[in-house]
Amino acid sequence: MSIKKDNKPNFNARSINKYKKRNKIGFLHDGFFVVLLSFMFFFSACERKEAVINEVFVFDKIFNRIDSVQKSGNINYALEILDSVRPNISNDDIQNLSNFYIFSSQIRFSDKRIAYSYADSLLALLNEKKEQEKYKKIYTKALILKSDAYVFYKQYDDALRTYFKTSSLINKEKDPINYSDFASKIAHIYYAQGRFALAAHYQKEAYTYIQRAKDVYPQTRFYLTQGALNNAGFSYERAGILDSALIFYNKNIQYIQGEEGKATISEHQMNAAKIVAFDNLGGLFAKKGNYELAQKYLEQSIAMNDYSIDPSKISAFIKLAKVYAHTNKIEKADSILNATTNILPLDTANLFSNQLKLYRVKSDIYFRQKRYKEGYENLNAYLSISDSLNLLNNTINKIDLAEKFRNLESQDEVKSLTKTNQSKTIYLVGAILFLIMLIPLIMLALKNAKQARKAERDTVKHNRELKKALKRLESRNRDYAKMMKVMAHDLKNPIGGMVGIANLLLQEDKFSAEDREMLQLIESSGENSIEMINQLLNSGLAVENEIIKKEKIDIQHLLRQCTELLQYKADEKKQKIIFYSGGPVKIMLGKEKIWRVFNNLIVNAIKFSPKKTTIKVVLERLQKSVRIAIIDQGIGVPEVDRHKIFEMFTDAKRPGTSGEQPFGIGLSISKQIIESHQGKIWLEDNPEGGTIFYVELPI
């Protein structure tokens, strides 16, 4: 069997089995009739053995060819080969039938229903325990494909249960290619949760074990290697660890260039990898403010395949438009945006997320062009789609993979113990004989059990009533949270408009340095307000479920900015905010969250202090932590209210010294944020009158 040069294979039963007929006897000479008859069965048996060996070899080459064509991007051709080979695989040939189901699921990934029906067929084929042991690698692959189906349909508990079963079967050293696939899937879940550093860790694991794998087809190794390097870099970029992202992006490009020119890697596959690599590297340089290099790599990405229209280039188009806008090449930015708008509908897989990016870039460019109406329209569209994406990701964000795997491990141990106990049933016979001697004790136990059942019924009744009361309370809480969400959502558009106008004014050169500083404070304050509203909307007013994205922050610089910004508010009551610092201290923090805490505490000090008083903010570095004190000369906190002051919507609230209205949620949110950073917050009386709020954070 051979493949023609025009790449039009003709796999059929005749071509695969033609060697079975090559020794057919065409004549029988009278003199040799007896001899030929004697040796016929011997040669027939040898030929059947040779046919089995050749058939395995033939199928192995065919599936390697399918893998090669699939990775090169020629999906239709891969399907053509796959469909032609199926009639030649018998239903009891588990090895080759499994390969057929695996490739069918992978190649038909765009039609999820069909793809996952093949995954189910593969699991059904390996339903027996002995088959699962015999074809362990194939069974592992089947579990991974099934997990993909569960993730797609958002059945996360079933997906994690299947992933856990997969992890218990995989031997990293003996089956590195399946472990690499498994690590990549876990990385994608962490990425969807916004836990980008963990996603990067698992992508590095995937890359490491791809390199250890042997007997991997060259195009498959290329596809998986550059994908893992690229995804590791992208995860680091989203985590804000830009230097690590640059290392992996450069390593990916070096790898791609090292493979260039090899006959095993098709031009289409090579160009597809370059488009993504140059796109990501250009975007990273744009984030670092190096617009010259950013423009260079993004233009290279778009120029691949002689500037052909390709949906995979949409991301590069959007980033390049933003770079042009930053370098005041507005006409070029407009041209790029028009091209992006035309090809966007072709990218059905990423239409939602790319539309979001496009609205944001359009909004920025229209504001620079003083086209305010279009700018506001695109800004509002961006905020609307952003809310929808946050709601879609809300379920997966609440999953703790490590905790889930620990629970599944515990369940597995329980099942194992149960099975062990079943084998000991024979010992019950002796126990029964012993129990006969304990009849009086058993009667007493029965009497006690009767009394216990009565107590249990009373408890169940009490619990039922308690559950009803809790359900009513939860219903009221949901209604209240819904009302608060509506109010918060309605605040977003005017604040978004304020940020947009401040951003626009900052582009003008006619303002003094002091005016520009005030505009920057307005812009920063507005963005922080929008972020706070978004977090309230996403978490149902419960920040403890959020996954905090931490970065290294100079706490001294953050506190100085906060006090300078709030001095304007203190001026209304002729108060003075004084900041005392023990020096710069950099620690890992969620910047917006910690900003919210100190903003709440200083605003409270202003609110509850008389006019013409002084508020002190003191930063002190300890051995393993930093401690911040906000000291006021206000009305203080009564002893009776101190245990309630950090509760959500507490009734322990009083109007400010100028009649300011308190809301009763600031300190509760602050406490949850500080504790999510493994810190603590408390208050003490100020000996000079007023209150001291302390915040301590680990270094």
Q: Would you kindly provide a written description of the structure presented here, covering whatever features stand out?
A:
With 699 residues, the chain is an alpha+beta fold. Among the domains are: 424-528, no CATH class; 548-698, Histidine kinase-like ATPase, C-terminal domain (Heat Shock Protein 90), CATH 3.30.565. It contains 26 helices and 7 strands. The strands form 2 sheets. It has a 5-stranded mixed β-sheet with strand order 2-4-5-7-6. Strands 1-3 form a two-stranded antiparallel ribbon. Strand 6 and strand 7 form a beta hairpin. The protein is flat. Mean pLDDT is 76; it is low at 1-56.
The average pLDDT score comes to 76
CATH superfamily of the domain at 548-698: Histidine kinase-like ATPase, C-terminal domain
Task: Please report the first level of CATH classification, the CATH class of the domain at 548-698.
Answer: Alpha Beta
Which range does the strand content fall in?
5-15%
Shape-level CATH architecture of the domain at 548-698: 2-Layer Sandwich
Helix content: 55-70%
CA radius of gyration is 34 Å
Assembly type: single chain
The count of DSSP E runs of length 2 or more, i.e. the number of strands, is 7
Shape: flat
Q: Within the largest sheet, what's the order of strands?
A: 2-4-5-7-6
**Helices and strands: which structural class?**
alpha+beta
Q: Distance between termini?
A: 68 Å
| Sequence stretches where pLDDT stays below 50 over 5 or more residues | 1-56
Number of helices: 26
